[in-house]
Amino acid sequence: MKKLFLPLGLLGLLLLAPCAAISSSPSSAGSGSPAKHWTADNGNGTYSNPLFYEEFEDPDVIRVGDDYYLAGTTMHMMPSVQLMHSKDLVNWELAGYCGDKLDLGPAYRLEGGNIYGKGIWAPCLRYHDGMFYVFTNVNGAGLMVYRSKSITGPWERNQLPGRHDLSVLFDDDGKVYVISGAGAPYPIDELNPDLRSFKTDAPKRTLPERMGEGHHLYKINGKYVDISCQPGGPVDQFVAVADSIDGPWKVTKMVTSESLGVPSGTPARTQANDRGLWLHQGGMVSTPSGEWWAIIMSDHGSAGRMVSLVPITWDDGFPLVGLPGNLRRAPNTWVKPNTGVNQPPKPAFVHDDSFNSGKLNPEWQWNHVPDDTKWSLTEKPGVLRLHSLPASDLYAARNSLAQRPPGPESTMTVELDSTGMAVGDIAGLGFIASPYGWIGVAKTADSTSLQMFQGAVAARGGGGRRGGGRGAAAPAGPAAPAAPAPAPPAAPAPMASVANPPAHVWLRMHCDFETDLADFSWSADGKVFTPLGGTVQTTFKASTTFQGVRPALFSFNTSGQPGGYADFDNYTVEEPRARGIEREIPVGKTIILTSSADGSVLFDFTGLSSNTSSDLNRLSPLINARAAAADANAAKVKFQVVDLGLGRVALKSSFGLFVSVNGDEVGFKDRGNAQPGLAESFQWVNLMRGDTMLMSLANHRYLTTQPNTPGPVTATALGASAARKSGAEFKWKAVD
Question: What is the pTM of this model?
Fold first, then answer.
């Protein structure tokens, strides 16, 4: 059994000299403080997932020299195909997009139809002979091939017959292979060298073994490797390896049942038997130091799909997610990749926009193709002016300008000047989803009112989907004519309204993705905000938008004709939990560790007989005991957190002994004057919602108890449970 890559041991990581930072990558809208905006980098040599606490779907990652690039799905949003750049695989910034617009028919413009849940799917990012390529299928239209000498563009595009969730391999013999499909056998086609047509006389090849969709095809050390996943939320990723592109292929699971503690439903209402939403679709990349890493996605409720960075260990010729001793599972917190770059924490996305620069913050995307004659940053410099176009509701409103909301909680605020609005106009701040919601100003012939409104579940504009994932691509060819829009239902009444608001108001929307709830408020002075309407449920509906919620600025007219305009200014996004308790390690403190499953406490049983308490019925140096039993021996539930660097800690008992792992057993060791060794070292792993796990560096498994059964603690847990009730998740409290 040959292992091509193992992560560096503890001593090697501690002795690793810092490297000089290399020149920065293409800039996004601006820099921001890691204290105010989510960044995966913990600032201590480790990172915590997700990479971005906001939606980024279907990731594909490559390395070009010392630079890393990442591409993601954008579906119906414009500009299309989001591209990121990094020097260390942890800190990323926006490099740009492949296409400013993807206008393939009226539905792409929200004219007589829509492409919600369709559009750009699962891009494949490649670099070959000095050229960047992005191959991406547009459901119902065909395969788009983008090319550019720079990741920042400009990009040229040509179109080919459609291929679902494809991946491309530039082989070292000059051949270009394309694997695609959502069900076995998976066709392996060839492209002509100019990438403008398929090779019609190529041998008929397939990968016949059962895999999934979302392919990523590589050639590594002479072996052909394809990774893909089954459609769905709680699904695994598979990997197939062959000596030849013609096979035979050997298949195994690359990652199994790894949720990183992400539940399948709303976190606040998670049940104990929740399997969670698993890591299941993404690409992999190597570093110059020989490490291998995967960037892989999982669903996150109404916030949408997010990506995580996880280490890969090669085992018996297969690249498997995980660490030795715990393969096919992934740590939520781990040491940053050894890329040769020591980069300080930097947020990937800063969403604020004052509209003063003359350009939109590049985090903005239009909902479908915009009408550029109906929006402006120059008609009144310093504001975004949206001229209203006819629409029945927010779901059909053209020129809605949207962003991805950061989690786990965010508050969006914008100023609205309604002076230029006409009769029939509605303008404001809302979220595009199904159902949608908004707060805004509505003007009729009789009055002007400030309204809070929740829409009905909207109809998707077509496209297929099977299981929990995407369906097969529609046949290639020109875009079909859009179906006539259904007659709009009678307009429901707003949930709440205020008559005759000031012409200049501040609108606010707050999203909590731990509860999947949103609420709205408004202000006449930007200081005191008054709630309007109640809370509304936010959802991820694969049957409609196939995205998480999208905060949006909008202006539309319900009369069937264009109307006036609305001016927006000073859009801000606050992230109150960008650096919450999830990032704190209580180094140097004395703490009590309590099981999140049953409230029992970790207890030093050294020197006590088995008859000390009726709750302590097994002799073990480290046990979990009911709180009542521990109260009589308060000193034995206290542990000092000793800092070992890189987010690693040792736990020192009140009696000077260190918690130590031997195989699966957990006991205590007297280190004397020596420093804690590998057996006494634990990666402090913070999950969201305040739960902590302790991963032993001796076997890369987690300390765990047996819920509701006082007894020995073991180092056997493979990962987190979605409900945090497995016995391996703990709460900590500092004590005197």
Answer: 0.91
